[in-house]
Amino acid sequence: MTSEPEAPRPPDPPRLRSELRWRDAPSEDGALLVDPSTGREFALSRAQAVLLQTFAEHGDIRRTAAIAGERLDLDIDESWLLELLAAVAALGLLAEPGVDAEQLSERQRLARRRHYEDLRAEKLRALLPRLRELPYYARTLDDSSSGLARLPVLDKASVRAHFAEFLPEAMPAGEIRWLSTSGTTGERQQVVRSMVDWDASQPYTWALNRTIEAARGERFCRLTTPFCDGSECHLRGASRAERTRGPRLSLDGGFDIAALPPARLEQMAAELREHEPAYVLADPSYLAMFADQALRRRLPLPRLRFVVTAYELCSALHRRILERVFECPVFDAYGATEYGALAVQCEAGRYHVNPESFVTELRDDEAGDDARELLVTTLDKQLMPLLRYATGDLVRPADAPCTCAWSETDTFASLEGRAVDSVRAPDGRRLAAAAVDRVVAPAARGLVSYCLVQRAEALYRLEYLPAEDFVEASMPAVAAALRAALGPGARVQLTRCRELLPASSGKFRLARADLRSR
């Protein structure tokens, strides 16, 4: 007698992975679901969070819809819950046998990358009609333009020459600020900023570094050029009260930052201690020069959680001094007066681009190196939006996804500096400022900063500022490393300086060509 075959066992109902954790109870603002296996956090609406928590408790579609509906005072359609579970499954948040953490991380990376790509594409589609309402874009964009790469590149000269054509007939509501760029390497450029736009984009950039994000809203100090915020607010002589705005204290630096009188040094150190900042946001040259002088005079400084460097290229020498003096990590950020903070270093050292507010493109300028010019499209700027804006800044693309929790974002391996802050080898090769720094910093022992000036086709002068721990015997090795990088025929002169002077904008440059200086 043969037995009948067993009926196939129904598949196990889907369930959330047991190790997932909720950051907080759902509120009107939503909730964060944390995946400890991959380090990622998922922001959910209150309704989504309640649905998933109810599903985790009951594991049944119909019961979940009914119970969650009562909790939310909503009529929950089962199809809505099924769509949510499908999205959750795509992120690897449902239990699946045999799936390891590496596979989960890659699945989440790809799913989140698709999400941000779709979001940016949607924002770009909405942006183009608004751009055509502005005189400049109405004149330069035709109705048939499709695909970002086919649209015209916007250069700085066009913005300067046609500034009024980038403005709407009526200014949007909210605070408006009229600013100008620093003009370190060219003419200064007028900029108008809506603080509503600013608040719509900047938090997303700083959230890409969890250490920085955790300190948002806390007290901090800022030290940068005498021209802050691009609005020519020179701070020299301003009182501490005048330099304090909310949690921020702007320190009273100056063009003579490398040779401050003792009284000014002691005042800055005292203000730093008394303000008790969680962190310092600073131009790396200014903060490194101040830190070196404070170290020489044994001035006590506060322990910081971290330092954020911005405004100009951060040398490995600057980072070395800041880490030594403040005993904390240093994170670099990239942005511009025209569009604010665009990218920030994560804890792994990569530069992550704000995936919500910007589209970035890397343009090969045929200089023969691995640096590329950065083009920026702003997606959240209602006032003075920029389409394929040629920044004049160079970056190196990353060759693989980052290992941090933001691996789905566009990333740069490094910032290379401004295109004009480059020198040329005798054979015509370009060495961007960061490429020069990768030669100088490993060989140097005890430098605060420097500038490599190209004086002729094969003649270079390294102007350097010794630090407290300067080792003069290391300088021949620095010269040899530069000659090797520049190639046959290169002559390198070494010039020790008592102080380095910034450009008229107040910013320092690590490299520049001055072929008229012979």
Question: How would you describe the overall organization of this protein?
Answer:
Residues 1-26 have a biased composition (Basic and acidic residues). Residues 1-30 are annotated as: Disordered. This is Phenylacetate-CoA ligase. InterPro entries: ANL_N_sf, CapK_Type1_Caps_Biosynth. By secondary structure, this protein is an alpha/beta fold. The chain folds into three domains: 21-106; 132-418, Rossmann fold; 422-513, 2-Layer Sandwich (GMP Synthetase, Chain A, domain 3). It contains 13 helices and 23 strands. It has helices at 46-58, 61-72, 78-90, 101-131, 135-140, 156-161, 195-206, 210-214, 262-275, 284-296, 316-326, 433-443, 475-486, and strands at residues 21-22, 31-35, 40-44, 176-180, 190-194, 220-223, 244-245, 248-250, 279-282, 306-309, 330-336, 340-345, 351-353, 358-363, 372-378, 389-397, 411-418, 422-424, 430-432, 447-456, 459-466, 491-496, 511-513. It has a twelve-stranded mixed beta sheet. It is globular, with a radius of gyration of 27 Å. The mean pLDDT is 90.
